[in-house]
């Protein structure tokens, strides 16, 4: 990967041998490996057995999970907040596992629509919940620093499964709770 970054520096007209850029290919390769570490993670490793029996059947929400991802079209960052909810059907997942699931999928080359779907389907698959909801709000540098150059635009995506899709009251409760600051 270092050789590829060195070639990119040359292609944009830089001298990869100048003092300020000597170690840039190494640092860039290390950064790219970190930013895409989701490819080397698995859901089994992330959840690590943290699924627990419960009688609770009420909505569980983890709100304002910050994330950073890379757009698969331009390899530029997009970042924002994810809100994830589920209604248990006999099992709950450890609290830290939902943000870890968000991180695992966001640390891959992505589009926001796919990221939203992957998180929802994963939480559903792991918990077998009666319903799962995911809303993601993000800013995309591919729209901010190139292309349309709109600094204040934001993309919002959602995915509703089970009770969140079937019952408008459940969906409205979730959307109300993620909007309100507690």
Write out key terms for the chains shown.
182 residues; alpha+beta; GTP Cyclohydrolase I, domain 2; 2 domains; five-stranded mixed β-sheet; two-stranded antiparallel sheet
Summary?
The protein is elongated, with a radius of gyration of 19 Å. The protein is an alpha+beta fold and 182 residues long. Helix content is 40%, strand content 27%.
How is this fold's topology laid out?
Layout: H1 2-11, H2 24-35, H3 43-47, E1 51-53, E2 60-71, E3 77-87, E4 91-93, H4 97-106, E5 109-110, H5 112-127, E6 131-140, H6 141-144, E7 155-162, H7 163-166, H8 168-179
Parallel strand pairs: 2-5
Antiparallel strand pairs: 1-4, 2-3, 3-6, 6-7
Helix pairs in contact: 1-2, 4-5
Walk me through what this model shows.
The chain has a five-stranded mixed sheet with strand order 5-2-3-6-7, with helices on both faces. A two-stranded antiparallel sheet has the order 1-4. It has two domains: 2-35, no CATH class; 44-179, GTP cyclohydrolase I, C-terminal domain/NADPH-dependent 7-cyano-7-deazaguanine reductase, N-terminal domain (GTP Cyclohydrolase I, domain 2). Helix content is 40%, strand content 27%. The chain is elongated. The longest helix is centred in the middle third of the chain and has 16 residues, at 112-127. By secondary structure, it is α+β, with helices and mostly antiparallel strands.
């Amino acid at each position: 990967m270092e050789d590829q970054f060195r070639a990119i520096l040359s292609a944009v007209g830089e001298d990869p041998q100048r003092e300020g850029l000597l170690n840039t290919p190494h640092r860039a390769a290390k950064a790219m490996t970190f930013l895409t570490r989701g490819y080397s993670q698995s859901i089994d490793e992330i959840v690590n057995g943290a699924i627990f029996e419960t009688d609770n059947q009420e909505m569980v929400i983890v709100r304002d999970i910050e994330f950073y991802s890379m757009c698969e079209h331009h390899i530029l960052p997009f970042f924002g907040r994810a809100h994830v909810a589920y209604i248990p059907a006999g099992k709950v997942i450890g609290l830290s596992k939902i943000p870890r699931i968000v991180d695992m999928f966001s640390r891959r080359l992505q589009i926001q629509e796919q990221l939203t779907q992957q998180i929802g389907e994963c939480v559903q698959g792991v918990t077998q919940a009666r319903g799962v909801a995911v809303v993601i709000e993000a800013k995309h540098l591919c729209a901010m620093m190139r292309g349309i150059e709109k600094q204040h635009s934001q993309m919002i995506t959602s995915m509703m499964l089970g009770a969140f899709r079937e019952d408008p009251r459940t969906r409205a409760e979730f959307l109300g709770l993620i909007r309100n600051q507690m």
